[in-house]
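Supplementary Note 3. Input sequence used for the single-chain structure prediction.
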Amino acid sequence: MKQVLKVDLKIRLSLENVPVQAPLNDLSLDEQLPYWLNLYNIAMIEKLLSGLPIVPCDVLVLLMGAI
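The predicted structure, written as discrete structure tokens, is reproduced below.
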């Protein structure tokens, strides 16, 4: 789980640096749309993952066997 959060953080930081490299005002609306959608998606993924409990794999296997 922590590995996933590190990857998400890296993606989010990369997206946050886009306006520094290419000001958004210089981009057309068609070029801005993917930027904003990706930034929104990564923020939502981070939010969802932050609320999930971290459960060891062996506990998950036991829980799946109980179903």
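The mean pLDDT is 79. DSSP finds four helices and no strands in the chain.
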